[in-house]
Design goal:
171 residues, mainly beta, Neuraminidase, four-stranded antiparallel β-sheet
């Protein structure tokens, strides 16, 4: 748990000091950088966007992924999907928000993005909670199943245009 907290802190520091932060638009005249709001409460009927992840592809495409928490700010087992926006021009313009993963049952969240620099593949690791399963209701163990909070991954080989089906990495 402490490691996860450190990763979130590091990600927040990186995002808040990057030109692609999730704050209000405000140019910084000292370095020519600006901030851009990418996700707004209410977009796509989402109550809250949380847990941002950002990666730049091998071809320079920026990909931002967040939790789309539809009904509240709550963690899993709440209704959560993964939402994404892309920029092909270093953040000057962004694609509309789109949901890249919304399971038929349960929820997904806490995405982490990883670029394989050799192949260019972008991985999106995330938690999957089967119906009713979340941080406080999951059973301990290393096997997967309906009582386990699971580690899943999807990937993109085309800079986030399309994503694979989820893979269960829990076992």
């Amino acid at each position: 748990m402490a490691f996860r907290g450190c990763l979130r802190y590091l990600l927040c520091v990186l995002l808040l000091t990057s030109p692609f932060a999730f704050g209000k638009a405000a140019p910084d005249s000292s370095n020519g950088l600006s901030e851009v709001d990418l996700f707004h409460q209410g977009d796509l009927g989402v109550h809250t966007f949380r847990i941002p992840a950002l990666v730049q592809s091998k071809r320079g495409v920026l990909i931002a992924v967040v939790d789309a928490r539809f009904e509240s700010t709550r963690d899993l087992p709440a209704k959560i999907a993964l939402a994404m926006r892309r920029s092909v021009d270093n953040g000057a313009h962004w694609t509309p928000i789109r949901i890249i993963l919304q399971p038929k049952t349960g929820g997904v969240g806490d995405a982490s993005l990883l670029l394989d620099r050799e192949s260019g593949r972008i991985w999106c690791f995330h938690g999957y909670g089967p119906p009713g399963i979340g941080f406080n209701t999951a059973k301990p163990g290393s096997t997967t199943g309906p009582d386990t909070l699971q580690l899943h991954a999807i990937y993109s080989d085309d800079d986030g245009e399309t994503w694979s089906a989820p893979r269960d990495l829990t076992p």
